[in-house]
Amino acid sequence: MKRAIGILGIVTIGLGAGAVEAQTVLPDPLRYSVSTPRPINPAEGTTNPSARTTQSQNPYLGSVPAEPTGATIQLSLQAAIQRGLQYNLGLIETDHAATDVRTERLRALSSLLPQIEARARQGFEILSFKEIGLKLPPIPGVGALPPTTGGFGYQDTRVALNQNLFNANLRSQYQASKAAEQASILNTKDSRDVVVLAVGTAYLQVLASAAKLETAKAQLTSAQSLDQQTASRVKSEVSPEIDSLRSQVERQSAQQRLTNATNQLEKDKLTLGRITGLPVGQSFVLTDSLAYHQPTAIDSDAATEDAIRSRSDLASAQAAVKAAELTLRAQKAQRLPVISVNADYGGGGSNFGNYNQLYSIHGDVTLPIYTGGRIRADIEQASADLERKRAEYADLKGRIAYDVRLAWLDLTASDSSVKVAERNRQLAERALAQSQDRYANGVANYLEVVTAQETLALAGDNYVDSLYSLNTAMVYLARAMGGADTRIQQFLEGK
Fold first, then answer.
1. Which residues, 6 or more positions from 131, have their beta carbon under 8 angstroms from its beta carbon?
2. What's 353's DSSP letter?
3. Contact, 328 vs 386, CB < 8 A?
4. Which segments of 126-271 are extended strands (E)?
């Protein structure tokens, strides 16, 4: 049997000779990309705890750890999700990115508003009459005047106003920044769904590992009991010594499986802690259990329509298209005239007690005539960016339909696998009980009992993996439809 690697992957379970093989292929929970104004792509990644390189690159698999409490934390699925939404690094970085976009909008808005500033000046100058072209005739009795004014000082204090009355370029840039801010807000909302997806799958993986640990403990207990029984039969010369050797090997193998299951559970708990902000060494216990939940009666087409309306990343991509359209309009508006007014008012003189009223006001009309092809290059670049955003929007819309369909297929197949796995486990339990009775009565040999034990072990693991696949498929579907934090609870309750 191949064990499921990390939180996701391909689960292949065999139940021995003549048994049913249940294979469930589940997609990567972080494959859903997040459209952001900055290059964050959580589509690349895995929650496999052994993939340390990927974890160091994917912020959604990290967190800002909280302070340890010193007590054991009772952690339900909803509590784990809330912790993820509070401490997950991917969501924190997305929030900071949204702040950056908001500041860009404020900066664009400031260009449209009046700019008022106060200026004060204390100057000392000497002016040359020749420099300004002033020739003064000699004064009788005095002679020729000096070539300069001599040193003098003055003071000047004013309040200045600058205002763009008409600037289509700045206005369109502001509108584009507003659309980009809206896209960033929607992107942050979508990032919450990615965090919920990562936390949900990690939580379910811990539950599955805990269930396998309990199965391993039961297998060890059964192997120890059978080993004692075989040792008694060999001592009584009812069974050959080779049966005792085989029982000891089976008992030690069960001990090794228990060790591996315990180690895997601890590793999965570390992964969940990293995603939800639990510090290493913090003791916590999961309060929910890995149970069967009847899949919600939802049609694939209806789920797709709901996802198109609800997915925040699609709305974010649509807002990004609008921002690109406004950016293109802004670049084209560079060819239009710009009308502005500049005014100042204050006073000046040789000192504060000898001030005179001063003011100036003038309007400017600026029209670009030749820019060396700069405006044309800006327009072409904005046009190419717009086409790229439109293509990304169309691709995302199709990918959402793909995600929903894939999750729905996984949900349907997993539900069938759970039912088959449950029947196989019951049959394996009956087969083991009968083989033990046959062995105790001397009708069957020890190999039949060992085979029945291994079949039951595989059937138990298969049932756990099937339950994990079913619950994880519900988490995938909740993410694919949008609003995962509310849909997960609804799906797990069969609503």
1. none
2. G
3. yes
4. 152-166
CATH number of 10-109+169-335+374-492: 1.20.1600.10
Do the two domains 10-109+169-335+374-492 and 115-167+337-366 of this chain adopt the same fold? Answer: no
Helix, strand, coil percent values for the chain (each to nearest 5):
60, 15, 25
Higher model confidence: residue 227 or residue 252?
Answer: 252
d(CA 329, CA 326): 5
Domain ranges of the chain: 10-109+169-335+374-492, 115-167+337-366
pLDDT digits (tens, 9 = 90+) for 389-418: 999 999 999 999 999 999 999 989 988 999
Q: Hey, what CATH topology would domain 115-167+337-366 get?
A: Outer membrane efflux proteins (OEP) (2.20.200)
State the DSSP code for 60: G
Strand locations in 226-378 (E): 284-286, 338-349, 355-366
Residue 490: the pLDDT is 77
pLDDT at 281 over 90: no
CA distance 387 to 427: 59
Question: Which tens digits make up the pLDDT trace of 70-110?
Answer: 888 899 999 999 999 999 998 898 888 888 999 999 999 99
41 in Cβ contact with 33 (< 8 Å): yes
DSSP 372: T
Average pLDDT over residues 250-261: 90
- Give the contacts of 27 (CB within 8 A, at least 6 positions apart): 8, 406, 407, 410, 476
Q: What's the pLDDT at 28? A: 43
Cα gap 90→403, rounded to integer Å: 21
Cα(473)–Cα(476) distance, integer angstroms: 5
pTM: 0.77
- pLDDT tens by residue, 356-371: 888 899 999 999 999 8
**Chain Cα centroid distance, residue 247:** 50
C-alpha to C-alpha distance for 46 and 8, rounded to whole angstroms: 8
